[in-house]
Amino acid sequence: MIWDQHEVWPREEIEKLQLARLKDTVARAYQKVPFYRETFDKLGIKPEDIKSLADLKKLPFTTKDDLRRYYPYGMFAVPMRQIVRVHSSSGTTGIPTVVGYTKRDLDTWTDLVARVITQAGVTADDIVQISFGYGMFTGGFGLHYGMERVGATVLPLSSGNTMRQLRTMRDFGVTALVSTPSYALHMAEVAEENGIDPKRDLKVRVGLFGGEGSSDWLREEIKKRWGMRPTDNYGLSEIMGPGVAGECEAACGMHIAEDHIIAEVIDPETGEQLPYGEEGELVLTAINKEALPVLRYRTKDLTTLDPAPCSCGRTTMRMARVLGRTDDMMVIRGVNVFPSQIEAALAEIPEVEPFYQLIVETKNYLDHLTVQVEVPERYFTGSFSELEALQCKIADKIHTILGLSVKVMLVEPKTLPRTAGKAKRVIDNRQVGRV
Ligand code: DLL
Hints:
The protein has 435 residues and is an alpha/beta fold. It folds into 2 domains: 1-325, Rossmann fold, CATH 3.40.50; 329-428, 2-Layer Sandwich (GMP Synthetase, Chain A, domain 3). 33% of the residues lie in helices and 23% in strands. The chain has 13 helices and 21 strands. It has a 9-stranded mixed β-sheet with strand order 4-3-5-6-7-8-9-14-13, with helices on both faces. The chain has a 4-stranded antiparallel β-sheet with strand order 10-11-12-15. It binds 5'-O-[hydroxy(phenylacetyl)phosphoryl]adenosine.
């Protein structure tokens, strides 16, 4: 089912609409947001310079730091009395970024989330458990209102209290789950520990996962343990929250809501636009928002874009699953390392579990990476040489892929931290070491 006819519009029509909305947004941003006016003036750009979509690249980028500089409300393009909701990022890496919505923005947001939900195959016949945190995080409320608009039955559990989550799923006949993929995996683990077989005892048939990436490995584990179809959806607070892009049943990337958002991929070093299909940093422009028009926002997420029509019938451009973040990259003794590369190496070792953590520290002025990964209990009751052989196998695999020697620590099941939200895979102790 298609939620909105814009999803199947011919590309020329979508592009016409994008241009009209872009012009309007640029003009409003220039008039109403001091940051944009000052930046445009400094660069000698006028809103009238935007005559075609190709002119987008004349516009300056917006970064998280820009939003932070105008904390909390300085980037809003409407007076506060028109703002009816505020969300913000968690602020774990500094000052939180704050986003505001007018009534119309909330309506648009809800509709775009309804689109993502429909793309994933959830309908009014589903009973949906929302296990994202409700609060300043956009995940809980975003999916909540989108589900209601679709007509699904919503159980707003929020995150945490995993046994209660599982009991509710079982007793209320939940058919669709909304959470981060890592929390879904953790829920399966707690279910199994408590004698619940998610495949046999629960009816969850589809998962809507977002807020963080999910590798093939994680998806396969979720499928295996839950017997459900996992789907991926992408978003970020600065653009609106969830609703930016979602995977359809053809499972070949996530459809971007192009009538509301223009996507580009750039070379993160040079800032130059890259051709379709090349991997780079995703840059998004929100072209239909009242409260917070954001031009060329640098997401730091790495992906590729594909404008070819999809077998599902939709014509909107698809983004590939996020491959990592530019700020995830660690430089260890001169080697660039993305956590996703380590994860891909671990995925090739059938003996290990999909729970790992990377610890970076400085010893004798050199950076060292330790990969902690869980292995089944039996390794700790068996012989030491077996454990050692597995450790070497993992270190060799990582060395082959990355050309980097790492220390591998095998740990017992359920010893690495679990979270009900986004998983934290990297512990970087280097700063601490340097002070
Ligand atoms: O995570 C919005 C969201 C909530 C999207 C629920 C989907 C579902 P933020 O907290 O601002 O917003 O974090 C945004 O999370 O730049 C990505 O790095 C990451 N992210 C979000 N969805 C995905 C995904 C929400 N499907 C940041 N795959 C983004 C990979 C994702 N990364």
